[in-house]
Design brief:
The structure is a single chain. The protein is mainly β. The strands form two sheets. The protein has a five-stranded antiparallel beta sheet, with no helix packed on it. It has a five-stranded mixed beta barrel with strand order 3-4-10-9-6. β3 and β4 form a beta hairpin.
Length: 213
């Protein structure tokens, strides 16, 4: 699963990496993004991809009338089967921008946080689904963990390769897109232990990602 992540890359680097040259939104780097926080996403626009802030945690229309726990993750393997996601999987796919994410590794009876990055901390995009509403909301798609992360957790976000980002945003049916998504084992992932400072969503500074002794 994915319950916390970061996006602290300078905005000019994000603009260049994701071709957001008409970017006009405000941007604040974050070292501890938690469920219900506002996250930077990209959706398919009429002519070019469009940046948009959304609430992390999908809130289906029927749940907006009866508030419940937001859906922060969606399993890749069952996207086309679950009613909540099936109605979105062909027309409401999005990119969720990040440059790292956290998991809590078990060690005996205890757990400690680790910070996971791709390609030495360069920005990337999670595969996401989104829905409209008074506040647009989104969920991160997850899959089986790469072998290098199995000792940390059995699930991980679907991280799109640059060449698969346009495909995820396209109107190509999910049944065709699914088979073309990158395998987690092909990604240059690395992780290290960080302090319990990140455990509280109230903490949002660079010490959340500082290596811990």
């Amino acid at each position: 699963m994915c319950g916390r992540f970061t996006l602290h890359t300078p905005i000019h680097e994000l603009v260049e990496r994701f071709d957001l040259f008409d970017f006009s939104l405000s941007y604040t780097p974050s070292y501890n993004i938690a469920p219900t926080h506002s996250v930077l996403t990209i959706v398919a626009g009429e002519t070019t991809p469009k940046p948009l802030y959304m609430q992390w945690g999908l809130t289906p229309p029927w749940q907006q009338q009866r508030p419940g726990k937001p859906l922060i993750n969606a399993r890749l393997e069952t996207l086309a089967e679950k009613p909540t996601f099936r109605r979105l999987v062909n027309s409401r796919r999005c990119l969720i921008l990040a440059d790292g994410f956290f998991e809590w590794k078990k060690e005996g009876a205890a757990k400690y946080p680790v910070y996971i990055t791709l390609d030495q901390g360069k920005p990337f995009a999670f595969a996401g689904l989104w829905d409209s509403g008074e506040v647009p909301s989104c969920t991160i798609v997850t899959q089986d963990a790469a072998s290098s992360l199995k000792e940390v957790h059995d699930r991980m976000p679907v991280i799109l390769a640059p060449e698969s980002e346009a495909l995820w945003l396209s109107d190509v049916p999910f049944s065709e897109v699914h088979s073309q998504l990158p395998d987690g084992n092909s990604l240059p992932l690395a992780y290290y232990r960080v302090s319990a400072h990140v455990n509280s969503p109230r903490n949002n500074d660079a010490s959340c990602i500082t290596p811990s002794d």
